[in-house]
UniProtKB/TrEMBL annotation:
PROSITE patterns: HD (PS51831). It comes from Hymenobacter profundi. Transmembrane segments: none annotated. This is HD domain-containing protein. PANTHER family: HD_PDEASE DOMAIN-CONTAINING PROTEIN, SUPERFAMILY HYDROLASE, PUTATIVE (AFU_ORTHOLOGUE AFUA_1G03035)-RELATED. Pfam families: HD. Residues 29-133 form the HD domain.
Length: 223
């Protein structure tokens, strides 16, 4: 088997992932992956020294087999990425760093640090986290909550600061709690200056949304 050029590999991977996730309904669909991919490209242009092929493959494959949809199996994603890349004739010098990105990228609870060990991983993690905040982040949070059958909000269920990944995996709290357990904290965990700049406006939108949501929930805006 001949080894594909980087543009061919990216093209084939894009088509593969698009076909697999085009109609996914939990907010982890092709549109999400494409935004993460495009944002990774933009961040890479502002980050000298990044291997753009590794970063783009990591972005395209970061949700290829998310643990959330595979019984909590944290290795499902790296395995699926390895299988695809081997089928394309790719060597370990590409497979291993892509696996590492997928293995390290996820948020695992407020009490669990999730540093990325490579520059390319930092770019993909930032791109993924930017897509979890702002207007798109709000929409995706409720799409996922609906997919899982979760309540919008329950004032009797307080947010939890998960101190372990196992605790975070078991979380099934209302969607509004997800903002306080994860989304509002992503800005402070971004890696690159470019991502942090983008996050400022998206953070403000989320905070304003939550203020308005809670006012309406309590009927404060109707007197």
């Amino acid at each position: 088997m001949s080894i594909p050029s980087a543009p061919t590999l990216i093209s084939h991977t894009t088509a593969f992932v698009r076909e697999k996730f085009l109609h996914e309904g939990s907010g982890h669909d092709w549109a999400h992956i494409e935004r993460v991919w495009r944002t990774t490209q933009a961040l890479a242009r502002q980050t000298p020294g990044a291997d753009t092929t590794i970063a783009e493959l990591g972005a395209l494959l970061h949700d290829i087999a998310d643990w959330k949809f595979h019984g909590g199996d944290e290795e499902a994603g790296p395995r699926a990425a390895r299988t695809w890349l081997l089928d394309q004739g790719v060597g370990e010098e590409v497979i291993q760093p892509v696996e590492t990105i997928i293995r390290e990228i996820s948020f695992k609870g407020l009490g669990v640090p999730t540093p990325m060990s490579t520059l390319e991983g930092a770019l993909v993690q930032d791109a993924d986290r930017l897509d979890a905040i702002g207007a798109i982040g709000v929409a995706r949070a409720f799409a996922y909550g609906g997919h899982k059958g979760r309540l919008l909000h329950d004032p009797a269920v307080p947010p939890v600061q998960h101190e372990s990944f196992e605790s975070y995996k078991k979380n099934d709290s209302p969607t509004i709690n997800h903002f306080y357990e994860k989304l509002l904290h992503l800005r402070e965990r971004l890696n690159t200056p470019a991502a942090k700049r983008v996050a400022e406006g998206r953070q403000r939108f989320m905070e304003e949304f939550l203020t308005q949501f809670l006012r309406e929930w309590e009927g404060e805006d109707v007197g």
